[in-house]
Amino acid sequence: MSIKDKVVVITGASSGIGEATAKKLTSAGAKVVLGARRIEKLEKIVADIKNAGGEAVALATDVTKRDDNDALVKLALERFGRLDVTFLNAGLMPNSPLSALHVDEWNKMIDVNLRGVLYGIASVLPTFTEQKHGQVIATSSVAGLKAYTNGAVYGATKWAVRDLMEVLRMESAEEKTHIRTSVIYPAAIQSELVDHITDSGMATGIRALYDEYEISPERIADVVAFAIDAPEDTTINEFTVGPSRQSW
Ligand SMILES: NC(=O)c1ccc[n+]([C@@H]2O[C@H](COP(=O)([O-])OP(=O)(O)OC[C@H]3O[C@@H](n4cnc5c(N)ncnc54)[C@H](OP(=O)(O)O)[C@@H]3O)[C@@H](O)[C@H]2O)c1
Predict the structure, then answer these.
(1) pLDDT digits (tens, 9 = 90+) for 23-45
(2) pLDDT on residue 169
(3) Is 246 domain-assigned?
(4) CA distance 145 to 153
(5) Band of residue 201 on the pLDDT scale cut at 50, 70, 90
(6) Which residues have C-beta atoms less than 6 Å from ligand 1?
(7) Is it the case that residue 71 has pLDDT exceeding 80?
(8) What band does 199 get if pLDDT is binned at 50, 70 and 90?
(9) Does residue 150 form part of some domain?
(10) pLDDT (tens digit, 9 = 90+) per residue, 149-161?
(11) 175 alpha carbon – ligand 1 mean position (Å)
């Protein structure tokens, strides 16, 4: 089964990579279930998708709450009768040097970027295990592959996603539950990500860097579509994707 008619949950769907992916997948015939906290943005995206002839529903979702993740999966099963893929994409990157001690922001990143992914996996595992079919795609970062100053906690959460997705792949293969996994490591992608940096020393510099290098979130959407479209017996486990001009 290719993308057409697959049912896909997407977290972090209200902007950036999640929004672009929702639009890309529905244009290829998938049905999407969109989660994020800003329901008004999700409703506008659902309207755009429906106007273009696609199928989408949305639910206000805070990925740091386990019940909210479960409710997204329940909505997919109730509305569309099946679930094939979850794209665990919600994340935030309020970078700062460790010495600035933005400990509340450290905790938020752990809650959204790591705990949110874990809850997302927990929400689909019962369904995927029972049906012996399913795909988990997660957005890590190039900061999940190499260290960046000012990004210690962000990077730590994204390195952790790499590890747990690899173990999910290995355990599913051993348990013969046929769950496919893909981790995406984006570099500078146009989105709202850097708008939430509060550290005054960081915000302007990163914004300028992104303005110079960033590429469209549709590039990541294309990769998600490619991973979903791969034959069911094939896992394409890792994609590193960024501007061809970016060296860092
Ligand atoms: N842009 C880049 O250069 C880049 C590079 C590497 C990795 N990434 C990763 O790509 C992913 C998507 O980010 P983006 O670049 O598209 O940035 P974005 O435009 O800021 O999107 C982030 C998404 O996460 C959602 N989100 C944040 N906290 C949430 C929560 N508690 N519960 C549910 N949803 C939450 C936001 O929605 P609400 O605010 O409506 O909840 C939004 O939809 C993130 O995991 C990010 O770390 C991005």
Answers:
(1) 999 999 999 999 999 999 999 99
(2) 98
(3) no
(4) 13
(5) confident
(6) 11-18, 36-38, 41, 61-64, 89-93, 112, 139, 141, 186, 188-189, 191-193, 217
(7) yes
(8) confident
(9) yes
(10) 999 999 999 999 9
(11) 32
Write the residue with the smallest CA distance to atom 8 of ligand 1. Answer: 141
Q: Which residue, by CA, sits nearest to atom 42 of ligand 1?
A: 12
Residue type, 140: S
Structural domain boundaries, residue 53? 7-241
Tally of structural domains, the chain:
1
CA distances from 176 to 34, 40, 122 (A): 29, 40, 18
Active site residue 154: yes
Which atom number of ligand 1 is nearest to the Cα of residue 214?
A: 3
Q: Closest residue (by CA) to atom 31 of ligand 1?
A: 62
Whether the CB-CB separation of 89 and 12 falls below 8 Å is answered with yes
Q: Would you mind telling me the total number of residues written for the chain in this entry?
A: 248
101 sits in the region (left: phi over 0; alpha: psi -120 to 50; else beta) called left
**Which domain CATH number covers 184?**
3.40.50.720
